Amino acid sequence: MTDREKSILDGREGPLKRVALQFIVNYAKVLGAERLCDVTKAHLFAGAHHYMDACASDDIDEVISEMLLCSPERVSLDCFACYAQADVGPTDPARWQELGVSPERHVKNRKILEKYTKAGLYPMATCTPYLSGFLPRMGEHYVSTESHAVTLMNSLWGACANADGIEAAYCSAVCGKTPLWGNHIMSNRRGTHHFRVEFTPQDVMEWDLLGYVVGSRTPTHSIPVLSGDLGTPGVVELKSCFASMATTGGAELCHIVGVTPEAPDFDRAFGSRKAAVEDAITFGDIEKAADLFAGSGEAVDYVSLGCPHYSIDQVRDVAALLEGREVHGDTALWIWTSPAVRELADRAGYSRTIELSGARLVTSSCPLVSETWPRDASALVFDSLKQAHYIRPETKSTVLFGSMAQCVDAAVAGRWERRSSR
Q: Which among 80, 226, 246, 334 has most CB atoms closer than 10 A?
């Protein structure tokens, strides 16, 4: 340990940093990490999330100490050691009543967010921090509580993080350290599994399905390498791909030959490693994945778009699809984005178009995290395999997946009609 780290453990920089660093030191011992590294950015699951109810206390510092810092010692969270930005919370702070969130949850959420903000956390409230200024460069060490964000920022920019979990991320944000292990070591970042993709994904839906299939074929801590004629995917396509990949598999890093910076060609994607698995993914494979969430003719109660949170371009596109149309009277259409994108959508007039149709543009959360999806619905529709995959085991409702346009048509008609993606 460095002299500075020893000084923090001795309590010379206060009890908050001491408690946080002790957690990180213990975590490093479990992992077998020999050293710690400096963390410069933290993206943190912020707010009065339902799991935090396990600590039955009205004292926010006590709740944070027990649930986030894993400490029986009550300390006050009054600062972060690095740039810190909020992940999603349990509700939209402005439209919580429409979502069916209780006044008690809303007030508790507001108080906790105020506490974090005073400590220096920027309340961006989004699972897509990279669309709101969270931009770690190649080789920069950061922490994030959002699985797909780790995969995207590690893969697209060569930034360095592990999917450590909520508590480790908070402790790193407070003490500015994380174990030098896993994806933080550049030599560990070579590919382990090779997938030849034998089709060119044409849209966001097909990238989502490709990520779902890759994730289902890769064990934890594997690093898939995708090769083939994959075109030139943008951030919108890749955020959906990495979200479903992290859902079914847990990949924290994925190289795409000719697209991502650590895989300019096939040989450098693997370095001296030999792929543990050689596999092919065909268009038929993603059609089979789509069949898991297919239906035809179902009455639709609930449609949710925006996982991961929509970019401003996606909000523009959904507004165009809804212009001059009305959402069916028996169907709810919720569209999720970040507060920053919502502000842009307001200025551009997209929000007004969406709201005039009867849809709702909401921020800061999602159906899964807010737990506000209707339990008595007959059919739930998502344009995200991450939401569909996680919610299906929790409900007796039919869970369906489709493109943005297909979901909007279902919301307007109040009925689901199956289409091929091509």
A: 226
